[in-house]
From TrEMBL:
Family assignment from sequence similarity: Belongs to the HesB/IscA family.
Record InterPro entries: ATAP (IPR016092), ATAP_core_dom (IPR000361), Fe-S_cluster_asmbl/transfer (IPR050322), FeS_cluster_insertion_CS (IPR017870), HesB-like_dom_sf (IPR035903)
Name the UniProt record assigns to this protein: Core domain-containing protein
Top-level taxon in the UniProt lineage: Bacteria
GO cellular component terms attached to this protein's record: cytoplasm
PROSITE patterns hit by this protein: HESB
Organism, as annotated: Sphingobium quisquiliarum P25
Pfam families tied to this protein: Fe-S_biosyn (PF01521)
GO molecular function: 2 iron, 2 sulfur cluster binding
Residue span(s) of domain Core: 17-116
Signal peptide range: none
Amino acid sequence: MTETTTKTRARPAAVILTPAAEQRIADLMAQAPEGTIGVKLSTPRRGCSGLAYSVDYVTEEARFDEKIETPGGTFYIDGASVLYLVGSTMDWVEDDFTAGFVFNNPNAKGSCGCGESFTV
């Protein structure tokens, strides 16, 4: 009788975080309210195109959330949003006039003119 072994490989994260995004998560966690366990990305329905990106503090882990450990803290992706975000890259961009997370999402079929929402 031969013994079989099961090999598992780590699956890639649904969202790739750039070093600038990881640093911003670290900065947010450094000033987070007491009881915060991480930062969470979700895609609530809003805006003129249907879905928007929302990044918020989270105080408890939800069962189906994806969890990504970063050097600066834990980053969660809302379980219901993962399908809209698979393969995306999240960056933090600052210039003279604005600062914010920027998403390169291959699943987005369109976005509104102001860039606040997208369709899949």
